[in-house]
Design brief:
Porin, mainly beta, 3 helices, 376 residues, 5% helix, ion transport (chains A, B, C), homotrimer, signal (chains A, B, C)
Amino acid sequence: MKTKQLWICSAIALASSAAHAQSSVTLFGVVDLGVQYTKGAGAGSVRALSNGGLSTSRIGFRGTEDLGGGLRAGFWLEGSLNPDSGTGRATNTNNQPTGATTAGGLTFDRMSYVSLSHDSWGEVRLGHDFIPTHYNSIYFDPFNANGVARAGNLTFAGVGTGPLPTAITGSNTVSYWLPGKLGGVYGMAMAGTGENDSSVANSDDGNFAGARLGYASGPFDIAAAVTRSQFSSTAAIGNYTHANIGGTWDAGFAKFFALYNRVTVKLAAGTVRKNTAEIGAHIPAGEVGRIRLSYAVLDDRSDSGLRTAGGLARSGDDARQLGAGYVHNLSKRTALYGTYARISNKGEARYVVSGGAAPASGRSSSGWEFGVRHLF
Amino acid sequence: MKTKQLWICSAIALASSAAHAQSSVTLFGVVDLGVQYTKGAGAGSVRALSNGGLSTSRIGFRGTEDLGGGLRAGFWLEGSLNPDSGTGRATNTNNQPTGATTAGGLTFDRMSYVSLSHDSWGEVRLGHDFIPTHYNSIYFDPFNANGVARAGNLTFAGVGTGPLPTAITGSNTVSYWLPGKLGGVYGMAMAGTGENDSSVANSDDGNFAGARLGYASGPFDIAAAVTRSQFSSTAAIGNYTHANIGGTWDAGFAKFFALYNRVTVKLAAGTVRKNTAEIGAHIPAGEVGRIRLSYAVLDDRSDSGLRTAGGLARSGDDARQLGAGYVHNLSKRTALYGTYARISNKGEARYVVSGGAAPASGRSSSGWEFGVRHLF
Amino acid sequence: MKTKQLWICSAIALASSAAHAQSSVTLFGVVDLGVQYTKGAGAGSVRALSNGGLSTSRIGFRGTEDLGGGLRAGFWLEGSLNPDSGTGRATNTNNQPTGATTAGGLTFDRMSYVSLSHDSWGEVRLGHDFIPTHYNSIYFDPFNANGVARAGNLTFAGVGTGPLPTAITGSNTVSYWLPGKLGGVYGMAMAGTGENDSSVANSDDGNFAGARLGYASGPFDIAAAVTRSQFSSTAAIGNYTHANIGGTWDAGFAKFFALYNRVTVKLAAGTVRKNTAEIGAHIPAGEVGRIRLSYAVLDDRSDSGLRTAGGLARSGDDARQLGAGYVHNLSKRTALYGTYARISNKGEARYVVSGGAAPASGRSSSGWEFGVRHLF
């Protein structure tokens, strides 16, 4: 049967020797889609096909080459997908609003880098990658930063007058990662550039830097991170700092999650300050099931003058989010899931469950989704 | 020799056991290009490199996982290509003109879905896919909806004042497919949503639904389908219904084709009604050759007030199309082909052979192409 | 171990016989990123992450099928990447400014074609490909048309009032390649069409044709090429001719390079005429190192009236470029490199090292980059 197959092989491999036997190029991805219903109290509702309710849909290519002596080279190219329409997602070329690309075609907007790594020295990556704080947002949210109940519904919405280019990933970056054998200590640091000519105004715009340090041992995992992005053109988007700390504890009967975020954006009209705290748990249910729960609160301490600037929230425009879901694994690759989320807005806050219909000011947003996630 | 190759393998596979021996991830595609000359009587001509004269050029990734007990999970990501320029094709995110993406980058505009299927129960797909009626347009047209002589030259042109987002594929869909073992009966049903907030005007725009039912036995295959798309904003694009029925009969010395389409679009200025009937044949010519013939007539019964609205045709603006071609298979993967098509327009009709130069009103459009199609 | 892997196999292969044992589909690519600093004298500087300092970052799919009797079919789909942001690059659909696509999503902007080839007859390709002159620009520049020191910094900048669509690749092309067994003689010819309707004004715009002929024997390789693109709309972009001749001589202790380019663009405001000559060398340094050197001069003979038209250079606005670099191969796939380049501008010339900050008129541009290139 194997002789009937037309093998796909790397061009390099064909031209080189068995020395590459330990090297590999991997095609991988996720297709995760669900049916979703969301409702904004005092407003409308939306019936939608949701993307990535459990894991972000994506396609990627990655590989490593063993160079001997503990040294490895590697690459990673991974792009988000919206399989409900067959589109890819936009990325940003200069970490500034002017660098936003047009959404539609496939880009490698998640990770796109070349890497040199060593067992003892750690790893250096050049390219486009997640910023340090986003790793905490993924690992210490029981909903892994995905779906209607993700913690980011409260953390990142309305922090600037436009989308923050470096809220999740950054371009033009160099990062250093600690090696794996440090007795449980792990960490990385990253710097990126907006690539502006030094002779133009606000030439530091789009520069950013951050770091993450963690410790994992047995059932415990804890990490803290900070990322600071520079924007001197304070009219539209300001200096932006995101700091967070989180952890998990696997108690066997349940795995507990905690995550605290502090976001500050300096705008011309005032400073946005948002502090969010989330706790949650994964509870095994039978051999293949897992219940997911989370509760998050947002304490908005933004300057009061901001409300008129683009509908931004101010102090007192707080919110709470409750998330509950169930994941049923049909295999290691395929899972069914259902998730419910409800946000209670206060003051004039209008936070929305991911993908949902905006509620009236101070009213609740809620939604559920049922989906299938398939890995390849 | 195999040890010299650098295998590309799925991330999942590397991390898992021989239980996946029956699973696979497949890379596949088509590159089909030709030289084309088209002429519009009373107007100009175009010399072009044509795409997909025999099969739509594309690249895709698909896979299935055997979950046991007759159950399978799978995914499909397939995007059209224009290899004459290296571009992908646009798709549409909300089944409405506002959701049209910018053409250029690769998208999975043909099929992009996750699937659960069972030998006895059938299959459920979530994602982006061909609408029910388009399957008849492909299978019961001797030119398989491709090239200068495709039946769609008459069926879909000029039915709205802009392109119909759901004429071929739909986004945000759920579909159900009958299982394979029903004694020759096959079928599917599909619904899709425009994902509009219920509180906005025309919130049903972009919703659509359809179904297809067929019967195949021995040399016979016949199927009927209907797809209805909702558009309450009747100014630019109206409620759109496409119904068709078609079949093939393989008589040995030739395979005969028949296809009848009825398209209705309700615009503010009146109703577009187009009925097209096509007959055709594939005639084997030697061991590796195949002659393709088709004859199609369009009976336009649109309201007379439409002619001033965007140059749309009206009753009496009829047309006939003749198609003739030859396919020479060099192997199962590679074929040479040549196709000729001629459309005779009546009244003020200006139908054009695919990719061609527009003729003067009521004059003929004709063209030929010679190409190479290579599957991988 | 192999049984644990989930092989990716071609759809065709699975359905066909061992006759395809000699066929293959190949996934391949390059990820090349570096840190770069460039400075424009009398102006500013830029700190950037550079793409493709040694080789253009890219991803591609290609394959061949052995049809027997010396005949082969094949395809090639290869797109540039900017891995510093995860984007692909734009291409052009009609060889004219109106056909420029929006940058962002992955396109197969480098090569996208289907091919039939024969051991004795040569090869015919249909699709999108490099124009004949660009092959000389790659092979006879010691920096292979990549990075801060590439020869193209002088050759192609400022030759039109906008980017020339067919300066590097062309769409809608047919090309013929001589077979391999001609005693060292090699060559190809290409024609492409703008696909305009003959009834519109300037219907020849975007048509182009060219050829390349070379001879390689032992340590010598020499080739000449010419490409001529038609643009009758002389206001924005004019008839464009690029001719070049180049060669290499591998003397063992060093490999020497020489390249001469002549570029002419007929604009309404006058004719741009740029002649560039470059010499250079690759000098082996140890078993895995290679020093790269180049020196190029630009003699601008453009009409004097051009300077006011879009800042174009005119006669006397000459420049010289010095390039020096080192490549350290960690393996056949992975290399570290460093490159320095300096352009001395004369008159009011403002040529810039690739990716760099523009200098003041007549002042120098310089820059360096250190990077990692990984092939897969």
